[in-house]
Amino acid sequence: MPSVFIKTYGCQMNERDSEAVAAQLVAKGYTLAKSEASADVVLLNTCSVRDLAEQKAINKMKNLVGTARSEKRDQIVGFMGCMAQSRGQELIDKLPDVDLVLGTQKFHRAAEYLDELLAGTRKKIVDTATEAKSEATIREHLLNGSAKTSVSAFVSIMQGCNQHCTFCIVPATRGEERSRTIPDIVAECRELVARGVREITLLGQIVTSFGKRDYPLLDGKSAFVQLLDAVHAIEGLERIRFTSPHPKGYGDDLVAAYARLPKLCESAHIPLQSGSDRLLKLMHRGYTREKFLGIIQKLRQAKPNIGIYTDIIVGFPGETEEDFEQTLSLCREVQFDNAYIFKYSPRRDTPAAMMPDQVPLAIREERNERLLNLVNEIAARKYDAFIGRQVEILVEGPSKKNAARYTGRTRCNRIVLFDGSARHQGQLMDVKIERTGSFTLYGDPAVVNL
């Protein structure tokens, strides 16, 4: 049977989609190639959030096509995911050697279409149409004993987004919000736990919007908190995480869940985007600086050691130095454990791309560097505070950079490295932190509880 190589760009949702496609192909008899050079099929699962991600995928495809042509190799190549959804036929018009363009609601069709392309019954396939119930088709997993997938797993609970932030193309590429049912999700989680998974991360474009149309409030709990309760009840599951939420989804029921549910890890990735109320309104974010700070305060009251992470955009159209200073001051006030900072990138057909006062690239880059320096300074202090402390980690497996070291994560989502062995994989264990690196903690194996 043919071999396939999948390269993924972008978010954890894309990683999960790629894993499901790979699992579906393996179930059909395909093998997974170790590199694109040795593969019969190469698929690029693409991202459209920033122009850089799109350009990387396009340039990669050009290189793949050029190499295959120069080496006179027959190779099926295709785009999947958000850029495929956004650009569709345009990708084949610009890159005639591309064989497949598969949209975000069509991942489950990959095996069917590849079979047709390999058999020669079809020459080119572009499918970006919407498909009912596609949100429930991404459920296969590759639990092959690798460090990442055998201990922890991603579970997609919904697709799409109704938020329509003015800078974001996701509603156009992923469609409207569509949620799976709670029983269906719980059944998938139970199956994963039976296969050795100990930590599950629930995924959605805005995960806290789960089931709003399908599940009414129950005892004051939103649909998403009802789902957390149901997953929490699974015997053998040790940890629950979720991403990505929206600040508007942090009601009192969700805040209370952190204190009430022992398996729910004290870690929250809450996208801020800007510390300026003026910009938040232009972004159509639906909350204020004060509201955001109130959420953080409530979370830290519920779980004092909670890890708080965020996303921030610098250089949004019309951002003044005063707006940017408000973002800096909010970061100083919140003291994020880490922040993912992005220079604003215009996306076609989004309202922000048409706004006046686009910020010059040089200013965006300068502000990006200033904010990054502040975030790194705060994070370094917070990491140093772990030295001498004992923390619980879930051991995921050997480090990618050094097989003699094993890696795990704390409940507040910090990576810990220690000298371990295969017998530690999958264990919950306590490690004493001896030193820190760049966003990494190092545990002394002499004080590991065996």
Brief summary:
By secondary structure, the chain is α/β, with parallel strands linked by helices.
Overview of this protein structure:
This protein has a 6-stranded parallel beta sheet with strand order 2-1-3-4-5-6, with helices on both faces. Strands 15-16-17-19-18 form a 5-stranded mixed beta barrel. Strands 7-10-11 form a 3-stranded parallel beta sheet, with helices on both faces. It is α/β, with parallel strands linked by helices and 450 residues long. The protein is built from 14 helices and 19 strands. The radius of gyration is 22 Å and the shape is globular. The chain starts with a strand and ends in a 7-residue tail after the last strand.
Q: Any key phrases for this structure?
A:
450 residues, alpha/beta, six-stranded parallel sheet
Strand adjacency order, main sheet: 2-1-3-4-5-6
Regions with pLDDT < 50 over 5+ consecutive residues?
A: 145-149
Specify the overall morphology. Answer: globular
Give the C-alpha Rg.
22 Å
What is the distance, rounded to the nearest whole angstrom, between the alpha carbons of the first and last residues? Answer: 44 Å
Mean pLDDT equals 94
| Helix content bin | 25-40%
Give the strand tally.
19
Q: How is the main sheet built?
A: 6 strands, parallel
Q: Enumerate how many helices there are, as a single number.
A: 14
- Based on secondary structure, the structural category is alpha/beta
Report strand %: 15-25%
